[in-house]
Amino acid sequence: MGDLEKKSKILIFGGTGYYGTYQVKACVAAAHPTYVYVRPFKPHHDPSKSDLLQEFKSLGVTIFEGELNEHEKLVEAIRQVDIVIVTLGMPPIMDQLKIIAAMKEAGNVKRFIPSEFGNEVDRISPLPPYQACCDQKKVIRRAAEKSGIPYTFVVANTYGAYFVNYLLRPYDKKSNKVAIYGTGEARFSCNYEKDIAEYTVKVATDPRTENGLIIYRLPKCIITQMDLISIWEKKTGRTMEKTYISEEKLINLSETLPFPDNVPMAILHSLFVKGEEMAYDLKEDDLDVVELYPEYKYTTVEELLDIFLADPPKPVLAAF
């Protein structure tokens, strides 16, 4: 058994964010000593963050408080762990350069998972607002490659629960309206966040994934928007009233809305018009998460919709 496969100490940045919460709980569930680096809590902050930190502590999570520009605090925290997983969103994603600098000084990190968890940024060509986000992730990738720190790039594709909420609005029992982007026929990989996080713990502690790129295309989660709506209609007995949003409309909104409102329009275009998640073939040295971990029973799209029927997760639709 390699050193990483033992119970590694894992530090998570962005652990109180939407996806970060899943990642923290997955590390705890896998019995890894888990640490979270968070900004100091201030009275004006959302009290739910305080509640979440208390929940983390009750699970045995160690909390480090500090800003990302406090280099010495970063180094001190990083020296206590083996693995660093970053789940920061936009715009602070470029702060990972500060984390990389701290890891280089600490000199002890055995694996770095930068904040990716979306599309394969080196192989897509989205509209400019989304391209700008991808370009920032590319900067982090190149910095990770040059750092000498073992890394893994995780291409997790679509957050399933998030986009079921976004597309189907299952919490709104009074509305049967649904927007369809483009023709609704583009395929995407609708992966449940819990599975993404649990796979990522495996990836972070696996010697086979060192300095590699791993892609989460889960066969029973690859679906079109039209098929997703059809399954939902069968499960609920409801007929959805469909409104089509054309490619031209999305392009126009991406060009005319102010930042950051234009970014989601470009992401919707990439996912549901161009189908960029599934538009490229895997290369010989790409890692396939399902092939690496065939024993893991991931949540299918059908099962994810059943979760929403039984106990709809709280919608988080402020931003992608």
UniProtKB/TrEMBL annotation:
GO molecular function: oxidoreductase activity
Coiled-coil annotated spans: none
Xref: Pfam families: NmrA
Keywords from the UniProt entry: NADP, Oxidoreductase
Domain of life: Eukaryota
SUPFAM superfamilies hit by this protein: NAD(P)-binding Rossmann-fold domains
Residue intervals of the NmrA-like domain: 6-304
Name by which UniProt lists this protein: Isoeugenol synthase 1
Gene source species: Heracleum sosnowskyi
